[in-house]
Write a structure and sequence with these properties.
heterodimer; A: Aminopeptidase; 23 helices; 12 strands; 57% helix; B: mainly alpha; 19 helices; globular; transmembrane helix (chain B); transmembrane (chain B); PIG-U (chain B)
Chain lengths: 620, 407
């Protein structure tokens, strides 16, 4: 308390912070970035370990024998799929019934707000088929889910393996939880319909028929995607809706069984390497972690498991990948892996909760927990607080020192100067930039029909181009408006506005980083410098250019290129631009289909906040 | 749903409706573990349950109007007192700039009412249909009748407020001080008039409390409600997370220390009354503000509505701004915490990824910020009074500028 109550020490602290503000801010920014990059360095990370007792100490044996038969079932499924030209519902029902499951179907339909050009769908109609294996040893209050999407492409092995496992599991007596085998059509849309039906919620206004049969409350779920006949390695996908991650124990479980059975396993498609002390080893880890950060920041579900997480169900997707290596993994091995995982999950006494929920993974065997990565973000936010103090004391320093030191001259001077700027001069930019944000959020969908009538574009292009147009129009609009109402902007006016904007940004970034660290960190990386340096007294053209470069839309553009670079699939500018447009349309679709929050967050909060800084730059 | 984390879920309309349903079935509403409202609230809602929304809005409007009138009257008195003091040349010469002008005081009552009505906390608590709004209305009416100098009404409303939630009991100290000041009774323990007034007030207060309690007894026909309402408030059996300090501590605590810590925590509300009353005996209205703040910080089931009530008084002390030291830091922290509450609640309860520690960290920070805010205002008030007696520009004995240090 001495610091807060002793005026002399306070004054010393404040003058130190004011004098050294810029250097401290620079150091903090550097330190934040360095800290973040250091997270991928192996000695700074923790080794993963199984925290859950029920899964750690018990032994299970995997004996699944019928890989070949599963593949044959897969081929049969493919033939029927081809014949029907979609999901072979009748065949699936019959096959599942033959394997002794309680089988139910659920039909659903959904009209997208605008056509999805990536997956070529607009009016979606489909059926989910699921079979429940009732637990013979327990009161059926809990359930596990194994799902395989029935996609137009090649996922037949997964369905075959699912059916094979169902048959094998049926003959085992140790199941204490219901196991639900789900084949969902139209990937996430079908999954959404099924989950909403299972939990009796309807958040997105989709039409689905109610579920006829249900198991207990779902404890964990795995989604299986085997896209080619030849599998060389298995990839674990964790990132779910809004950047939510499943409990780390699920990843540990997967890793443990891959080690035990001897399957090559990857995360983000990157193998584990042992040479962490070499430059290439470190850059490999950075690459893996950055991919995770990028995927998490996008806020979209990266596999069919992504929607489970919303219902408090730990879920992951396992992808079979053919990376043209010598070493091949056959269906029996994958079946044994899944059997092992399900038997361990079957032993759970309570929901997975022991291990971490907030983590980043530079490799499958190492992770960075929230306590380690939050300081990187904290260092960036400290800059905002420092600038805040700087502006505040810049405005009030005289009053401060006058009050603290009781110096008569200063008090008289300050009292004469004390004219508070009108609330209006701060409120107007705030309201106008938020209205622009609301326009950015609502107009693209609202005006797609009109745009299609008047311009030679498709609906999807219309939506994306309207969004870009509103975004650009926002730059021209607000910075002139405050003058209409309040006449000349005063020196005090912009300081108060900046005070408000910086505080706003700090709170916004803090909340974002708690929900989705990666998104918060990326936004902080670009927006914090803007917030720190912008004033009306800097060269206009250059700083306007920098501001645009660091705006959320450009951040997204760079992220697209950076992501491609990380995946080792660099694209030309032309392709990158097309990709950028499709990313925007996917982001909007994700929001309207699954309730992803990134698009509304950017449109309604981050963009208006950035506009405030734009406003300050052009303050007259 | 989010708002339920901010408004204690035991004191909302849905619970009252459940109590009503139980009563209609002929079961004592207190026989369960859910209902902890007073009998009068049940009977109020027995009649207005169909107009519940309007009732809550009306309660907020009554609070705002009562605060408006009270502050208007109070400002008038402050101004009159200041005028007398000026005419008697009681202020040092260099304090003229501390004198408050009628121009700046003119809008204060309006600001107070707006501060209450437009405060997001009030709106939240009204939308959540928390009965805290009704308690606030009673307390505001108590403040109004006290400031108007009506002893009987003041005692009645105070007993109503006490009946609703024990803690306003501590407000009787400022009420007594104020009423005595108004009737020119000196605060002197040796004077008979002082004791006579206290006896009078206590008689009115206890009498009306007795009447209300008996009325409740006759309404329900049993004393069930006493342990269920007051026992609930005092012994804190419900550990549902809220914005207060109790739930986490009592969830973590060893059971055999419970009674001890219960006393330690509960005594906080009552403990500060005596020193504050001694220090602020000349300024009972500021004492009311302090007491309201202390209650809302340290009570067992605090809600955002309680905070809104004492925040509404901040415009009254706008002349203290030049002496506030941490107001910037504190308001940043309060703002950030208010934004983080729903986020962490979401992460904990809905997403299941964060846990109670995250939420409690923010609760703790929020309460520390509130305490800093209140102590800052307290210090600023004392400092202004000090300057009004000793002059604004203090000199040391050797003639150099002196600084005031709070230790």
């Amino acid at each position: 308390m001495g610091l807060l109550s002793d005026p002399n020490r306070r004054r010393a602290l404040i003058s130190l912070l004011t004098r050294l503000n810029t250097p401290i801010c620079l150091v903090c920014y550097m330190a934040g970035v360095a800290w973040f990059m250091g997270l991928a360095f192996e000695p700074f990370t923790l080794r993963t370990y199984m925290s859950e007792n029920a899964m750690g100490s018990t032994m299970v044996e995997e004996r699944f024998p019928a890989g070949e038969r599963a593949l044959a079932t897969g081929r049969e499924f493919a033939a029927h799929k081809k014949k029907v030209g979609g999901m072979p519902v009748d065949w699936l029902v019959k096959t599942m019934q033959a394997r002794g499951l309680e089988v139910f179907t659920q039909s659903f339909s959904r009209t997208l707000p605008f056509p999805d050009e990536n997956k070529e769908r607009y009016m979606v109609k489909g059926t989910n088929v699921y079979g429940i294996l009732r637990a013979p040893r327990a009161p059926r209050t809990e359930a596990l889910v194994l799902s395989a999407p029935c996609s137009p492409g090649d996922n037949n092995q997964a369905v075959g393996l699912l059916l094979g496992l169902a048959q094998y599991f049926r003959n085992q007596i140790y199941w204490a939880k219901d196991i639900i085998f789900l084949v969902n059509e139209h990937d996430l849309i079908g999954m959404q319909a099924w989950l909403e039906g299972y939990h009796h919620t309807n958040t997105t206004g989709m039409d689905w028929s109610p579920l006829q049969g249900r198991g207990g409350s779902i404890q964990a779920a795995l989604s299986l995607e085997l896209s080619s006949d030849v599998i060389t390695s298995l990839d674990l996908v964790l990132e779910g809706l809004n950047g939510q991650l499943p409990n780390l124990d699920l990843a540990n479980l997967f890793y443990a069984f891959c080690q035990k059975i001897g399957v090559l396993c990857t995360i983000q498609g990157k193998l584990q390497r042992n040479d962490w002390d070499s430059v290439s080893g470190y850059s490999h880890a950075v690459q893996t972690m950055m991919l995770m950060v990028m995927k998490q920041a996008s806020g979209r579900p990266w596999g069919d498991h992504g929607l489970f997480l919303r219902y408090h169900i730990e879920a992951a997707t396992i992808k079979g990948i053919n990376s043209f290596r010598q070493y091949k993994t056959d269906a029996t091995t994958i079946g044994r892996l899944l059997e092992g995982m399900y038997r361990k999950l079957n032993n759970l006494l309570e929901r997975l909760h022991q291990s971490y929920f907030f983590y980043l993974m530079p490799s499958l065997s190492h992770f960075v927990s929230i306590g380690y990565y939050m300081p990187a973000f904290g260092l960036l936010t400290v800059i905002l607080l420092l600038r805040e103090t700087h502006i505040f004391t810049g405005r009030y320093l005289s009053i401060y020192s006058a009050c603290i030191g009781n110096s008569p001259l200063l008090i008289k001077y300050v009292s004469s100067q004390q004219s508070s700027p009108g609330v209006l001069s701060v409120l107007t930019p705030l309201v106008i930039s938020h209205l622009t944000g609301v326009a950015l959020y609502t107009l693209p969908i609202r005006f797609q029909e009109m745009a299609v009538e008047h311009f030679p574009v498709s609906e999807t292009e219309a939506v994306v181009l309207t969004a870009i147009a509103v975004y650009t129009a926002g730059l021209a609009l607000p910075h002139n408006t405050h003058r209409f109402l309040s006449g000349e902007g005063t020196e005090q006016g912009w300081r108060v506005l900046k005070l408000v904007a910086v505080l706003y940004l700090a709170v916004l970034l803090g909340c974002t980083a708690l929900i989705n660290f990666s998104l918060g960190f990326i936004l902080a990386l670009t927006l914090v410098p803007v917030a720190a340096f912008v004033t009306p007294h800097i060269p206009k053209v250059l700083s306007a250019f920098i501001l645009v470069i660091l705006s959320p839309a450009c951040t997204l553009l760079f992220s697209v290129f950076f992501f491609q670079e990380l995946q080792e699939m660099p694209v030309s500018f032309q392709d990158g631009w097309l990709l950028y447009l499709s990313v925007i349309s996917q982001g909007i679709l994700d929001h309207f289909l699954y309730g992803s929050l990134v698009y509304p967050l950017i449109a309604l909060l981050v963009y208006p906040c950035w506009l405030l800084f734009w406003n300050i730059l052009f303050w007259k | 749903m989010l708002k339920l984390s901010l408004v204690t879920c035991c004191f909302v309309l849905s619970v009252v409706i459940e109590g009503l349903a139980l009563l209609d079935l002929g079961v004592s509403p207190y026989s369960g573990d859910v209902f902890h409202e007073t009998p009068l609230i049940i009977y109020l809602f027995h009649f207005v349950v169909d107009y519940a929304e309007i009732t809550f809005m009306l309660a907020d409007v009554i609070t705002a109007v009562a605060l408006y009138l009270a502050v208007k009257d109070y400002n008038k008195q402050v101004f009159r007192k200041q005028k007398f003091a000026l005419e008697a040349d009681r202020y040092p010469l260099d304090c003229l700039e501390l004198i408050r002008s009628p121009k700046e005081m003119y809008y204060i009552p309006l600001k107070v009412a707006m501060f209450y009505l437009l405060n997001p906390f009030t709106i939240l608590s009204c939308v959540a249909k928390s009965t805290c709004g009704l308690n606030n209305a009673v307390i505001a009416l108590f403040i109004l009748s006290t400031i108007k100098g009506n002893v009987l009404l003041s005692a009645i409303f105070l007993s109503l407020a006490t009946y609703q939630s024990i803690y306003p009991l501590t407000l009787c100290a400022p009420a007594l001080l104020y009423l005595m000041q108004r009737q020119y009774i000196p605060v002197n323990f040796r004077r008979a008039s002082f004791w006579w007034f206290i006896v009078q007030y206590a008689f009115m207060y206890l009498g009306s409390l007795f009447v209300i309690i008996c009325l409740s007894f006759f309404l329900l026909g049993s004393w069930d409600y006493l342990p269920s309402v007051y026992g609930f408030i005092l012994s804190v059996p419900d550990l549902t997370p809220n914005i207060g300090l109790f739930w986490y501590f009592f969830a973590e605590m060893f059971e055999h220390f419970r009674l001890f810590f219960l006393c330690v925590f509960q005594i906080n509300v009552f403990f500060y009354t005596i020193p504050l009353s001694i220090k602020l005996k000349e300024h009972p209205v500021f004492l009311i503000f302090m007491q309201l703040a202390v209650i809302s910080i340290f009570k067992s089931y605090p809600t955002v509505g309680d905070i809104a009530l004492y925040l509404a008084f901040l415009p009254v002390w706008s002349h203290l701004h030049r002496f506030l030291r941490n107001i910037f830091l504190v308001s940043c922290v309060l703002l950030a915490c208010s934004a983080l509450f729903p986020v962490l609640w979401h992460l904990w309860i809905y997403a299941g990824s964060a846990n109670s520690n995250f939420y409690y960290a923010i609760t703790l920070l929020f309460n520390v910020a509130q305490i800093l805010l209140v102590s800052d205002y307290f210090y600023a008030f004392l400092r202004r009074e000090h300057h009004l007696t000793y002059g604004l520009y203090l000199k040391r004995k050797d003639g150099s500028e002196a600084t005031l240090v709070l230790k």
